[in-house]
Amino acid sequence: MTTTRFEIKKFNAITNFNLLQVQIMAILVQTGLKKVVIGKKA
After folding, report:
1. 31 alpha-carbon distance from chain centroid
2. Boundaries of domain holding 35
3. What are the Cα distances from residue 38, in Å, to 13, 14, 15, 18, 29?
4. 3-state secondary structure of 19
5. How many whole angstroms separate alpha carbon 42 and alpha carbon 29?
6. From first to last of its 42 residues, what are the pLDDT tens digits of the chain?
7. Which end of the chain is more exposed for a tag (fewer CB within 10 A), N or C?
8. Is the distance from CB of 12 to CB of 39 less than 8 angstroms?
9. Per the structure, how many domains does the chain have?
């Protein structure tokens, strides 16, 4: 089993929350996990 790690700055008052959401969703799409998170069947 392989582990993939991504460097994402943690959310704080300075970081734009929408940008954080976009970055996380992009990683989920790349790893094929978006459907799992949003609850759609594969």
Report:
1. 9
2. 1-41
3. 26, 27, 24, 17, 11
4. helix
5. 13
6. 677 787 877 766 666 777 878 888 888 888 887 777 777 665
7. N
8. no
9. 1
